[in-house]
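Regression check, arginine case 608:
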Amino acid sequence: KSNNPHFIMNGELKEDDAYSVCVQNSVQHLLDQAIKLAYPNNQNLPVIITPGKTSDYQCNSAMPIAQKLGQENAESPQNPKQIAQTIVQHIPKHPIIDSVDISGPGFINIHIAPTFVSKQIRKILLNGALPPNINSKNKKVVIDFSSPNIAKEMHVGHLRSTIIGDSIARLLEYLGYNVLRLNHLGDWGTQFGMLIAHLQDKFPEYLHNSPPIHDLLTFYKTSKKRFDDEPDFQKRAYQNVVKLQSYDPDIIHAWQLICEVSRRDFEYIYRELDIRIIDRGESFYQPMMEIVVDELEQKQLLKEEEGRKVWFLPGITVPMTIVKSDGGFTYDTSDMACIKQRLLDEKADWIIYVIDSGQSLHMQSVFAGAKLAGWINETSDVRIDHVGFGVVLGEDGKKLKSRSGEAIRLRDLLDEGLQRSLTKLKEKERDKVLSADELSKAQKSVAYGCIKYADLSKSRTAVYEFSFDKMLDDRGNTAVYMLYAYTRIRSIARNAGIKEETLKQKAAEIDLDFETDQREFKLAKCILRYSDVFVRLLDDLFMHALCEYMYQLATAFTDFYDKCYCIEKDKITGETTINYRRILLCEATANVMKQCFEILGIQPLQRM
Ligand code: ARG
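Current build output:
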């Protein structure tokens, strides 16, 4: 069941050229109607639809209904098979359903109508894979992802957040939401106090000349060491933080310089991976933090504890620290100001935080706090999700490190991916077939595609093992396999010399009676399931379901293509005949795959 309050699935099959039909939801809607008609006095009976074993969909409601009715009226025991029959009698006539039968103890098997299938495939051929019609118009989503920390390493955890967050944003944009992609940069912490103190010593001209911060990280390390070793330095660092938070012009200037260097580094990663994101770091919320602290004090929600102001929340043992003993604000404070801003100023309908699962207690506290402060009320239908994910480990099962034992720099990681992908392409002798430009495009597509797909194709909450060897494998559910499958499908029509216009014309004109060949019909119905998948993703935002679907589709395609000839040569006359219905089925498969790649942020190629 969807927990998305904006998401009202329109089960009625209104033919609309701008949208695709979500088949499972339509079936669900019809069976819901049937059950309500059959049992008008019982409005809360379960409607359970799953993909069928011997049919396209299956309704398993008769058994739990029998149980429920039996409990309510012990005198008249209920027979699930009879209940199934009663339900079937009440299913409204509808173009989507061809036939229905009952099997086993009371399973209702639903078969989809061939004419409906042809019509939908034709739509995919003429207009591409359109989104299903959900209630997303004018709904605003704020998605907080990536969010590395200035002057610190952008690590593999941030890479996961970047990849998962970008894919969710792409999904929601495709579905018609108004999406605001925010980079909640850590740009306002203690690290700046130390860095600036160091800058003051080593680059007294820092206000006029850009200091030579080639490697901000070493710079950060030195200042951290001084912070730990030199009490005077430490004192000055703390003073700088206070000055920063009160907008001292010199300190702000130095802070800006540091932020810029870091940003340049992040931007490289975003550009390479094709990520769009707007910077709005913790510093943005400084003025709001002051207001929030006043508000919480007025509402008497804070407690003094050893000079700190803390906030205890119902059901959560560790309180949030809202004001430190030196008067400074914390990560908790900035996230409280931030959620208030997103709720009340941005007027978000849906807020998504893509942050590692290690921060789930922090997120729970922030959500509970927002309720307690009254920024979310009982009747509000704002949806808030913490999209958590597991830690990244190397192949040795330990934290991912470089050969020299240091934390891996993301830039190095991407470079290694590029290098390995080129080696792989050369192994397959692609360099002999492709032009230099094509080869370099393939190199990038494979490298970044693999890094993204490997991350997205596993359940995000599980621990993630980073392995170039596994992700570059061309067998199984990997990006390389999918990318090649796509290219192969696209090449079928091209190799037969069929022009784009011819395909369009045939798509509009010829009979698409796939049901005359069960192998074709099976693939056609698998293609139509993409809408079901997109809608299901909205519930839990587990993107691996999309990769699983893609893999199923690729497998269904292989089954079809192994057995069904698209182009046949007459043994006697030597004449070739093109089976356009089958060629079009290949094209429809490719159209859907292309849309899936788009949502995963992967760039498929015509040739590779
Ligand atoms: N900068 C934080 C980190 O590296 C992530 C920020 C996530 N977003 C948020 N609103 N707390 O852990």
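Comparison notes: The first strand starts at residue 49 and ends at 51. The pocket of arginine is lined by residues 144, 147-149, 184, 186, 335, 338, 353, 355 (CB under 6 Å). No diff flagged against the previous build.
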